[in-house]
User: Fold Glycoside hydrolase family 19 catalytic domain-containing protein from Escallonia herrerae.
Amino acid sequence: MLKHRNDANCPAMGFYTYQAFISAAKSFRGFGTTGDIDTRKREIASFLAQTSHETIARRAIGVDLLRNPDLVASNPTISFKTALWFWMTPQSPKPSSHDVITSRWRPTSTDSAAGRAPGYGLVTNIINGGIECGKGPNAQVADRIGFYKRYCDILKVGYGNNLDCYNQKPFA
Assistant:
């Protein structure tokens, strides 16, 4: 699935393993296990797509990264855990990406007025909305959608609705 993870040109060649991902995922209750099988697959596809784009409160993972920040770069399980912590944890006023992609989040009237609706596009808004969202079509959002569609296709799951954030107002 991570087609470039073992390329010679990849600085992290051989770093990200399936076992490290599974080990990290088990640390976050509900990740990849919430909802029906399509919802579970869509969450994994969404997470992998966002982290794929981004890679071209630390106490929550059980490691003191303030004293040893290099663990993120040297330990693949810790690296996945930091990404999963961000994925699973709401950052007010933003919901968690997990809650959005698993349909546990419902838009308020303020969200609806801002064009924020459930779907993959809102996940992009949560992660990088201030730079990429509410500006019409752009290459960054299109790139994220491309990764998402690729992972959904591999997992044989539909994409769902609201894939982009082109017309969504970013969170404050």
In short: Residues 18-155 form a domain with the Lysozyme fold (CATH 1.10.530.10). The radius of gyration is 16 Å. The first helix runs from residue 18 to 25.
